[in-house]
Amino acid sequence: MAKRRKEKDEEEDKPFKIPKFDEKEFIRKEKINIKSTVISFLFGILLAIICFGFWALMGQNELRWYLVLLVAVFNASFLRYIYIRLNIDTKDFTKKNWFSSYAIYFFSWLIVLIVLVNPPFYDGEPPRIELIKLPGYQEPGGDVMIYAKITDNTGIDKSNIDFQLTYPDGTSTNPDFTYENNVFEYRFDYDKDGPNNFTDDISYDFSLSVTDDSTHSSKIEDSFTYSKNTITIPDPLGVTTSPGPKIGYAQTIKIDVDTQVNRVYYTVNGGNEINATLDDDGYYISSAKMKGWPKDQNVTINVTAELIYYFENHIVDNEFVKYTNTINDTQTYYFSVTDDPNVATEDIPEIKLPGPRIKQAPGFELLAFIASLAAVVLIFKYKKKNRSNQK
Asked: Does a structural domain hold residue 7?
């Protein structure tokens, strides 16, 4: 026991010797690392150019991004053979070295390809048009607003836009419009151009075409309609002459709207706005139970519909731009309210209105997830290796 302790003490008394630094071996390994890095980078550029050719030849194929990604992934295996052909000694390569080589190759490929498929090198995308009519059906006296968000990777000027309006009699015109912050705007002024003394529905056709600097074009054709029945209260309650039908808290008032809107409300004798709610049959409903209805009186009802729209990610002066218009029913409806204690006892319902539309660029979340997952795996492997070495 004493002998073993003596040998241990002698080992501890021995001075620590710094391992000899092999300069030649160090330089050799560094040269290999530099060569492999340069080759991975150049191979990524070469594959990016080849994939760009495939990408351009496939035109508007929706799968082209997935296909060129597969080409890049499958061709990564050639990196080993290139090292061998160029006499690069990979016998000392660790998993870390191989991971670095493939990472340099992949990100070089990705960055160069993204640069190549965008202007000024290439423009294969036509302009994109997101058009909205506010509204599609309008009551006489109301204006119609047409908005379109136009995006293109080379930019669009007002001179690249052609807007044509066709009247019900077949005549066409190119009315003036505004184009600011990538949004086309046209107002159809009813007082100036609207129909007069009509009974049947009257429609106006229009077309919006956009051509970019690379002669790629997009076109949308649509129409809007004027109708005296855009908003109606159907029989038997929809009476337009005084004094109107008797109504108490139990009768349901149904409002029919022939176009998509975001909110329908009405006023009783010109008072506060009372929201109507959408039922399963597509009617906007309400009743005299809502606060704002008087008891034991003859009243008039006027109905209005509101439209609200936001373009995706459209911000001007640090604010989301809101586009709105209204439909005012030209008819006035008459009711005779009963003297019932349940009249005007319920609160007016709140309506959830559309808000700004935000859409993130697709794909980046997935890339971030994959990168995070890879980092976690590498950390665990590194810790596991350290524990093994300590043992």
From this structure: no
